[in-house]
Amino acid sequence: MTGYILKRLLSAIPVLLGITVIVFLIMALIPGDPALAILGSYATPENVAKLNRDLGLDAPLVTRYFIWLGNMLQGDFGQSFALNRPVLDEVLERFGATLLLAGVSFVLCAVLGIAAGVVSAARQFGLADKAITFVVLLGISIPSFFLGMMMILIFAVDLRWFPVSGMKMAYGGGGFADVANHLVMPALALSVVATGVVARLSRGAMLEVLRQDYIRTARAKGVSEGRVIWGHALRSAMVSIIPVLGIQAGFVLSGAVYIEMVFQWPGVGRMLVDAILKRDILLVQGGVVFVAACYVLFNIAVDVAQSLLDPRIKT
């Protein structure tokens, strides 16, 4: 197992290097001069030229990339132009809020999606199967940001059950109950599409397993239906379900960008949007690379979990 984990970690290195190249090139090709955005009304040709020299933006593209990559490998993600603070400090400060939102959304999509898929497969062509299929298709068809806005309109503005936006009350907030109350709507809005995807693929995986000979043998021996479904079939189906969960983890992590904007959640997604609008190149690059690295590491963890369920995967 140790060798397999090391192999997966080594295979992640070229992936991360590729991500750094793509992110750097995209930011470099965006029209506009970052110095102009930083200086604003003080942007004279002399000031712009001086700031570009100070920031190293007048160097060749390849040179700038390797300087940035070398500094990042040493833990220096650079200095935010707009915020005037280290990029890594800002990303780490914001990442906790994003991790909370994405983590709760991922747990919801995993638990609800797998449960819905199992029940739907166990009651194939029945009323429960049709109802779950209808709800799943409806959930997949609704964009998360639109669902979030509708939830704000109904549950926050009209019914006043939940706060409109933010992570905690402006004054006297921040406790567990306060954060949980603010978390309900964004977590549900972010998890709906992922839940539908997990439910559909879980249903397909379960139906394939339920047709296997050993399932029929277990039923013939008098094993209870609950144990057959949840004890035997689900364990085998998890080998196919776990990779789907890894993909959906990336979906909720990237989807947090627009959900954070809709609900004004103070996470990395909202930070990246603000940084893009301000042309804060180093903050955007550092934030994207940090989130991408977290996603790659999570997928490695998913592969390891899958190999524990099916040792054949390692070979």
TrEMBL record:
Highest taxon in the source lineage: Bacteria
Tell me how this protein sits in the membrane.
Answer: Multi-pass membrane protein
Q: Per its UniProt record, what PROSITE patterns does this chain match? A: ABC_TM1
User: Which InterPro entries does the UniProt entry name for this protein?
Assistant: BPD_transp_1_N, MetI-like, MetI-like_sf
Q: Name one Pfam family in it.
A: BPD_transp_1_N
Q: Which residues cross the membrane?
A: 12-30, 95-119, 131-159, 179-201, 237-261, 281-302
User: Which stretches make up the ABC transmembrane type-1 domain?
Assistant: 95-301
Q: Which Gene3D superfamilies match?
A: MetI-like
Q: Tell me where in or outside the cell this protein is found.
A: Cell membrane
Its GO biological process annotations read: transmembrane transport
Q: Which UniProt keywords apply?
A: Cell membrane, Membrane, Transmembrane, Transmembrane helix, Transport
Q: Name a single GO cellular component.
A: plasma membrane
Q: Where is this protein primarily located?
A: membrane
Q: Which family does it belong to?
A: Belongs to the binding-protein-dependent transport system permease family.
Write the protein's name.
ABC transporter permease subunit
Species whose genome carries this gene = Pseudooceanicola spongiae
